[in-house]
Design a protein that fits this description.
Layout lengths: L19 H16 L8 H26 L10 H14 L6 H8 L3 H13 L4 H8 L5 H14 L9 H11 L11 H15 L4 H28 L4 H32 L4 H26 L12
Helix pairs in contact: 1-9, 3-11, 4-10, 6-7, 6-9, 6-10, 7-11, 8-11, 9-10, 9-12, 10-11, 10-12
The structure holds fe (ii) ion (2 copies).
Length: 310
C-alpha cells in the first residue's frame, strides 16, 4: 500500500484552485449549497453554470486521485471469494490503519485536544445515511436491500432517538463544538468531498459502494478508541453513545455489506471488483491524510514518545 507521504499533496492540480485548501473549501461550500433543501429560485440558470464548473473541477479531482491509485489496483482479484479476502485485509493493511493517533486519543489526549479532533471529524462528516441513499439508486435487488437495511439502521429503525446523524449532533452540542468549513483542515474536507463526489455521481457508483464498505470495515476500532477516550475524560453517556454504538454495530454492518452488497456485485460483473477496490482505497487514503494532519496539529508542541508515528 502507498502511504500518504508519497502522495503529492492530493488535490493540487487545477489552475483554478492552485492549492488543496482552496480546492476543498470551494468544493465543501458548493456541496453544502447543492445538497441543501431549497425552493425555486430566479437564479436557477446561473446556479447551473456554477454547478457545471464545479462538477468539472470535482471530476478532475476524482480522476487525478484515480490515476494516483491505479498502480495498486492491478492485482485486485476479480473472483468474489478472492476479492472479499483482498477487501477484508484492508482492515489490517489498508492506508491509515492502526494510526497511533487513536491509542493517544484513548489514553492521553486532554479534553481540549479531543474537542479539536471531534470538531474536525464533525466538519468532515458527509452524512453516511444520505451517502447510502444516493448510492442505492437503481442497484440490483440484493445489494439494494442491503443498503436499505443499513439505511434503516441509520434511521434508528424508525425511532428519532436512535437516528445516527442526530446522535452525533448531540455529541457536537454536548461538547459545545462549532464545526465550520473555514476552521477545518483541508484533509478532512477532502474526505467529505470525495465521499460526496462518489455518491452523487453515477459513474462512480461502484467506488461509492467500496468507500462506504471501507468505512464499515474500519470504523469500529477507531470509534471504540474515541469512546474510551471520552469515558476517561468524564464525558456523559449521551455524548459517547454514537461512538459506543458504532464500535459494535459496524462490525455487523461490515459483514452484511461484504456478503450482500459486494459479493453479488462482483459475481454478476467481475470487472466491478477493481472499481469497488478503488473506492475503498480512496476512502482509506483520505482517512490516512486526515490522521497525519491531525497529529501534525495535536502533537506539534508535545510529541508523545509512546505513540510516535513511524
Ligand atoms: Fe451509522
Ligand atoms: Fe454502519
Amino acid at each position: 500500500m502507498i502511504s500518504v507521504n508519497k502522495l503529492a499533496r492530493l488535490g493540487v492540480f487545477t489552475p483554478e484552485f492552485p492549492d488543496a485548501e482552496a480546492l476543498h473549501q470551494g468544493l465543501a461550500r458548493w456541496n453544502r449549497r447543492r445538497l441543501a433543501i431549497a425552493k425555486p429560485s430566479r437564479d436557477w440558470a446561473a446556479d447551473l453554470n456554477t454547478d457545471m464548473r464545479m462538477l468539472r473541477l470535482e471530476g478532475g479531482f476524482v480522476e487525478a486521485f484515480r490515476a494516483l491509485l491505479a498502480p495498486q489496483l492491478a492485482a485486485v482479484p476479480e473472483d468474489a471469494a478472492g476479492f472479499l479476502g483482498w477487501f477484508e485485509a484492508l482492515k489490517d493493511t489498508g492506508p491509515g490503519q492502526w494510526d497511533p493517533l487513536f491509542a493517544w486519543l484513548e489514553n492521553e489526549a486532554s479534553l481540549e485536544q479531543m474537542r479539536w479532533f471531534l470538531t474536525q471529524e464533525a466538519a468532515g462528516e458527509a452524512g453516511f445515511d444520505d451517502l447510502v441513499a444516493l448510492t442505492q439508486i437503481k442497484l440490483p435487488p440484493r445489494p439494494k436491500l442491503e443498503l436499505a437495511r443499513n439505511y434503516w439502521d441509520e434511521m434508528g429503525r424508525g425511532a428519532e432517538g436512535g437516528m445516527h446523524g442526530p446522535m452525533l449532533e448531540r455529541t457536537v452540542k454536548g461538547l459545545e463544538l462549532t464545526p465550520s468549513i473555514e476552521g477545518t483542515v483541508w484533509q478532512s474536507l477532502c474526505l467529505a468531498n470525495t465521499m460526496t463526489a462518489l455518491a452523487t455521481t453515477r459513474r462512480y457508483v461502484y467506488q461509492s459502494i467500496g468507500a462506504l464498505g471501507a468505512v464499515e470495515l474500519t470504523a469500529p476500532t477507531r470509534v471504540g478508541a474515541v469512546a474510551e477516550g471520552l469515558k476517561r475524560l468524564g464525558c456523559p453517556p449521551e455524548q459517547r453513545k454514537y461512538f459506543v454504538l458504532h464500535a459494535q454495530l459496524d462490525i455487523e454492518h461490515s459483514r452484511a455489506w461484504n456478503a450482500e452488497a459486494l459479493a453479488p456485485l462482483v459475481e454478476a460483473d467481475p470487472s466491478c471488483a477493481r472499481l469497488i477496490a478503488e473506492g475503498a482505497l480512496m476512502r482509506l487514503t483520505c482517512g490516512e491524510q486526515c490522521f497525519e494532519a491531525y497529529r501534525g496539529h495535536l502533537w506539534a508542541h508535545a510529541h508523545p514518545v509512546v505513540y510516535a508515528a513511524e
